[in-house]
Amino acid sequence: MSAEDKAKNKTEELKGKVKKKIGEATDTEQLEAEGKGKEMKGDLKQAGEKVKDAFTGDENEK
User: Fold this and answer.
1) 35 within a domain of the structure (yes/no)
2) 4: burial class by Cβ within 10 Å (0-12, 13-18, 19+)?
C-alpha cells in the first residue's frame, strides 16, 4: 500500500470520527451515522490494502 493511499484512508477515517463526535455532541443522529459510515469505510480500505500487501509480499508497508 502506498503511503499516499495510507494517508487518504486514514484521513477518511479521521474525518468520520470527527463527524461522528459532532453528531453525538449536537444530538444529530444523521450526522453521527454518516460519521460512523465514513469511519468504517476508511477502516475497511486500510484492511483491504493490508491484505493486498500480505499477498504481494510488500514487507515495508506492514
Assistant:
1) yes
2) exposed
- 53: amino acid identity, one letter: D
Domain that holds residue 26: 3-52
Q: How far apart are CA 57 and CA 27, in angstroms?
A: 45
Percent of the chain with pLDDT over 90: 47
Q: What is the pTM of this model?
A: 0.73
Rounded CA gap, 48 and 12, in Å? 15
The radius of gyration computed from the CA coordinates of the chain, to the nearest angstrom, equals: 14
Length of the chain: 62
| pLDDT tens readout for residues 36-53 | 999 999 889 888 888 888
